[in-house]
Design goal:
The complex is a heterodimer. Chain A is α/β, with parallel strands linked by helices. In chain A, 38% of the residues lie in helices and 15% in strands. By secondary structure, chain B is an all-alpha fold. Chain B is globular, with a radius of gyration of 19 Å. The chains are: A alpha/beta, B mainly alpha. Bound molecules: iron/sulfur cluster.
């Protein structure tokens, strides 16, 4: 592991993209920032703009309208950027996979580095996913 | 000549203020975490953040903006903060800066980073950034007058001398300024000015993350943002150092005084962090009223009290 890699993994800043989600996954992501789970221990921060982000968290099903926005956000991101698909919706489509506005799971649109399944995934599962990403 | 370059780049210049500023930025985040019953980031976190932005990330230029201005702004803000830091710290090392009246120069240099952020926001061509810039402008207009009143109070108390050296000398003869009533009032007003200058919570409406997504910095990425981060670290060190030099008997770097100087600066930083963590963000017009009416009033009262020597 080179120096750049080491630095990068020590300071991941998260940007949260919520697709057409049922809002449960968003809440669980916010749970990770609370005193109980506290991802700031690993140097992670939630940032408000994609220009500062190192990790793009995508949750919720991606429908026709979200698709172009997700692509736009991904193209606006400064590289290197990691993409994490959170929840059954993000990974496969989940209960919305049969919907007529559904535009494919996240990895059909942009490359995904980690999947965190669950509906919604527990904060523990999100932390475990993040740790897997760090050790990758 | 060589000495000047050494002073500017290594000690007490760029390298020193940036390192101490990084440590203080960590302290700020750690105290925040402790107030919220969290564990907080590891101790080298600010340096990781800076190096990551500088070395690893790509810098994106705005397509519809003035690219050169956009890129010059972080450099200017870093220069302003560093020179201010050098001028603040040199007198406490017993090195003569060669001119009197450095208090006024420092006042102007400390305004450069905020002005630079504003210009950068305007150059980025982002609507949210211009909202942030306009808020920053209003904030500057409100707190700069107050900050200048505080400085005039200090100048008055130090028998009309306008150099940091003379102010520290006056305090070593007649006791720290914070020991008198007018000194306490001026100190409190100065703390609120610092809060606004640093963009910490009651007055962080310019970069409100939750509503306008970091405002002026929204388009900055990569190494340009790294320099802005570095400026913020430096400001978190030199502003408390400035206040400690003006109010708390000055900074000295010999023997046991080193410990006292560090404790003074730490005390100011802890105070700022606690204010930041226990207050909500106010609206811009509330902030303007707060400074224009209340803080100016208190500063004037303190100056009048100071005239009577209270
Ligand atoms: S995965 Fe489940 S909880 Fe998460 S957004 Fe989809 S339906 Fe909601």
């Amino acid at each position: 592991m080179g120096f750049k890699d080491f630095i990068f993994k020590k300071s991941l800043w998260l940007f949260h993209f919520g697709g057409a989600s049922c809002n449960n996954c968003d809440i669980e992501i916010l749970d990770c920032l609370t005193p109980r789970y506290d991802v700031e221990r690993f140097g992670m921060l939630l940032v408000g703009t994609i220009r500062h982000a190192d990790v793009l968290l995508v949750n919720g099903s991606i429908n026709q309208k979200d698709k172009s926005r997700l692509l736009e956000i991904y193209n606006q991101a400064p590289k290197p950027i990691l993409v994490v698909a959170i929840g059954a919706c993000g990974c496969t489509g989940g209960i919305f996979a049969e919907g007529n506005t559904f535009a494919g799971p996240v990895d059909k649109i942009i490359p995904v580095d980690a999947y965190i399944p669950g509906c919604p995934p527990k904060p523990e599962a999100i932390l475990a996913g993040i740790m897997k990403l760090l050790n990758k | 000549m060589f000495n000047d370059i050494f002073h500017f780049l290594v000690f007490p210049g760029l390298l020193f203020v940036a390192t101490v500023g990084g440590i203080l930025a960590w302290a700020d985040r750690k105290i925040t975490a402790m107030v919220q019953f969290r564990k907080g980031p590891p101790s080298l976190q600010p340096f990781y953040d800076f190096l990551k932005l500088l070395l690893v990330k790509e810098t994106i230029l705005p397509a519809k903006g003035s690219k050169i201005t956009f890129l010059m702004v972080p450099v200017f803000s870093l220069f302003g903060a560093t020179i201010a830091g050098v001028l603040i710290l040199l007198p406490s090392l017993n090195i003569q800066t060669g001119f009197s009246g450095d208090l006024i120069v420092i006042f102007y240099l400390l305004a450069i980073p905020s002005l630079a952020y504003m210009v950068g926001a305007m150059a980025s061509g982002n609507p949210l950034a211009s909202v942030g810039a306009s808020r920053e402008m209003k904030l500057i207009m409100s707190y700069e007058l107050t900050f200048f009143l505080v400085l005039s109070g200090i100048i008055l108390k130090a028998d009309m001398s306008i150099g940091i050296n003379d102010v520290m000398h006056a305090q070593s003869q007649s006791g720290a300024f914070i020991g008198s009533l007018s000194g306490v009032i001026l100190f409190l007003v100065a703390i609120f000015c610092l809060q606004a200058k640093l963009g910490l919570v009651p007055f962080d409406m310019a970069e409100a993350e939750t509503e306008i997504n970091h405002g002026p910095f929204i388009e900055y990425s990569g190494s340009a943002y790294a320099l802005i981060k570095l400026t913020k670290y430096i400001m978190l060190f030199i502003l408390p150092a400035f206040i400690a030099a003006l109010f708390m008997g000055g900074l000295h770097w010999q023997g046991i005084d080193i410990l006292w100087s560090i404790l003074k600066i730490l005390a100011v930083v802890v105070l700022l962090t606690l204010i930041r963590n226990t207050n909500p963000r106010v609206k811009i017009h509330q902030a303007m009223r707060f400074f224009f009416i209340w803080m100016n009033l208190f500063a004037v009262i303190a100056i009048i009290l100071g005239m009577f020597g209270i």
